[in-house]
Amino acid sequence: MIVESKVVKVGIADMNYCKAPNKIRTSGLGSCVGVVLYDLNKQIAGLAHVMLPDSNLAKGKTIHKAKFADTAVATLIDILEKEGVWRRQLKAKIAGGAQMFTFNTKDDYMRIGPRNVEAVKKELQRYAIPLISEDVGGSSGRTIEFNPETGLLFVRTVNKGTKEI
Amino acid sequence: MVNKDSLNPVALDVLKEIGNIGAGNAATALSNLLNKRIQMNVPSVRVVSFNEMMELVGGPEETVAAIFLQIEGDLNGSMFFVLPVEKASVFVRQLTGNNEFSFNKPPYPEIGLSAFQEMGNIVAGSYLSALSDFLQMQIMPTVPDVGIDMFGAIISFGLIEISRESDYAIVIDTEIIDSNSNIDESSIKGHFFLLPDADSYRKILTKLGVGTL
User: Fold this and answer.
1) Catalytic, out of A32, A36, A95, A124
2) Which CATH number do you get for residue A30?
3) Do the domain assignments include residue A126?
């Protein structure tokens, strides 16, 4: 039997998960960070496209969970646990957090990329999820695609080619 | 909070007029700079989700040449001038007289990046000074920065501040078309995106006496 594999697409400030042979992908990460949590035994992976480091930054009444590093990691764990994954089996790979532009402005608004990366790492530590590999920082946009069968994260950039981490 | 249905028709017309005035002035400046006719479409004002925003110029992965600057003063927000890479290359060739120049592959020669940045400075400055005159408000742009990268990676920078409050952005989008271009029509459009933050929209609409969103 031939099983056709699909690619699950995740938008900005959004999250989803997939099981092998499907793959999961998000495009055009700039200062945003793509967080992949996966279990290689169960061949399942969740991906969140995080925009901001902390839900305390939210001004609105409702919090959109996939948007913030803290709420996104927690929610992604919940989603995967509902699919029968053990939290202790989870591993992580992350990419993104670029500093696309380099102004000198009054606040550290422009450092949002590095701040997102720091915040995601802090959350992974909080839940004791090992970070297996990362492709973060720099000044290039990234598109990432994760294969839950191999555990490899494919990273494409416009200016620096492609790699697998 | 900006909602999907929060723009009333009068506010919509006012914001369109802002796009018209700003981009009209910018198109004239660009036209003078390049010594060619630049046409402009009627601006569109839309309330879009962030994902819809990513689709405005061919999807989040589309490589574009962009000028980005922030606005400070009486209004706060971001402004982008986004061109297809090929179009930006043509403009830079005309400005520098270097017929070999291209943004297709890095590294990009410094002279070309500078020329593109300066073009952005002039064009965005014209947009914003027209806006400032019309609104009688002080608008101070930062020095523009250039990005040749994925559209999603670039435009999401303008959404950071907005995203603290909302899942939608109001975007004033004006297309410009270089009329004597020989490249396929669909690929030659440039876009001005003005993304004032929510407070600034309220200020604009109050100033012009059309109430709140």
Assistant:
1) A32
2) 3.30.1330.200
3) yes
